[in-house]
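Predict both folds.
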Amino acid sequence: MMTLLEAVNRYGNSYSKDFTFFFTKLSKVCEKFQKQDFQTVDFNQRLYKLNEKINKNGLSILRNSDLRFLINIVNLKEFENFNLFEIFNEIETRNKQQLFRTIFNSFLNNYNSKYKATFQKFIIENYKKFPTTIREFLDKTSILHSVNILDSISREVAISENPNFTCTNNLISEFILVTKFGALFKLDVLKYAVALNDEDQLKKIIVWCYSNKDIMPNSEVYYILLSNYLSMEPSAGIKRIITDFLLNVFKDPRLFEWPDLDNDENNIKKQSCIKLFRQWLALDDLNLFIEIINETALDRMWKERRDFWLRYFKNKLVSDVTLILASSSDKLAKRIRESNEESNHLNWSKLLGGSSNHSVILMKIGDIIISEWSHNGATRFWKSNQIGAPEFHKRIYNAAELRKDSIPLKFGAVESTSLIHDSDGKWRKKLEKNIEYFSGVKII
């Protein structure tokens, strides 16, 4: 069945910056669409018949609808059996505006494909044959010749109070925005919105970009949102907006695979983005752990322990984290999450076999795994590749598995499989030296 968008592209007569005309036109298009007796035709069968006709009698035997069909599938591998130049020549001979409009639509949907230059050349050579509204758009944006003007429009939309209105003023209609060209244009707008460091504007542009999420190239979105902060720290508000959006669209990268980026050899850019985002999530987990301990632990040394670990998190030395909560701590965490919308994204695992108010934060620094217990619990280390080392992000942990098989820590000539937080504060230096010894990570 033909989609509504395909019907609009097939039967719509022009692009307009006038919203009243736009909705009138859409209504008429829908009426015409409803009256058509569209039957499901096997795609491959239609291609076979068209190819057979062309081989026997040439392109001149095809209906205009057949030519439009072929132009609209240029980006599919099945089109390789057809000759785009010959189709263009046939359309040029027929000189029908409906066919030229189809070429324009297909150009927008192949804006980043290998056929882009071929479309550009044809449109430039036949410029005067295209409908007036299309020529106005081409002149306004200069996309046939340069990206500079389009770049300035992207900046204008990025700071706009009403992105759709600003697009319309620049002759970029809703029809254009749902093409591949429109998706790339939205990515440019998003890039400039991120650079503004304006929380309200960024949220507005993200919502606008995803008003039709099906046409957005997702992988490029997360790169634009995160790459700006590989070398700088965002504000808390910006970080929250980006975090909520990425978790909603891509989910937690510690649990789900994110899509690959285009032109990203060995996934270097992708991994740098995921590493940064995991660090953001890890710090959120630590902050929740701190908040729970503040309310449940009467530990005179907790402030020192909190400050100790914060240094590693804020220096982005912690690459993975799992927060593990026993029953009372689990209830408290749920209450914290429900009372603060900025904590909605937080998740944790359940701890069985320990005191009901205990909590554990499991961390990875370099190649070692560290468990830090609340209250009077000890700190333990495992090598990440050792048999029996705790796994990250399980739904349920037993207290025993977070204590067994840990590696001996070095305290001068003495070794012990755990570190107790002694009251004289010497534990800090001991722990720091063991982290450096086993992981190679030195805190500054």
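Second protein follows, with its predicted structure tokens after the sequence.
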Amino acid sequence: MSYKTEYIWTCKIGGPAIQFQSGADAPMRQAVQAAFKHVTGNDEAFCFSGWGGELTEIERAIVENRLPSDERAAVQAAQPEAVGDGATIAGLESAVGHLSAMVDEQRRLLVEVEQVCGRDAYGIEFEDGDSELIDKVRTHLAATTDPDAAINAPRNIHE
């Protein structure tokens, strides 16, 4: 098991383009610094931030709810220094997080579908084979992890 000597948290946040007033960096930077201290119990040793960042092709594809362009993603992967290895990894972690959140929400919806639609007119739960759709929902639910149960599972953050 290896321990890191420092932790670096990377975030990209954005929205529609607007005209910024002078000093628009300060509130964002102060909020992140306060959150860092709250989470870690320590003041930050450094904080690089500012307006003008760019999304990688993978990040842009997530924002636009589409698959990444293979050509642009391949160029960025072949030239990690163009976006920075840390930014690339953070972007991929963000993509995985985004997709995981979507899967978790879809699983919650399927649980609700099974509870509401998985019963006959008398409120009795369908048995296997009574409904092809409910059978598929149950098969999917059995193959996925309940996100609410996974939250409480112990994790080693130093791996």
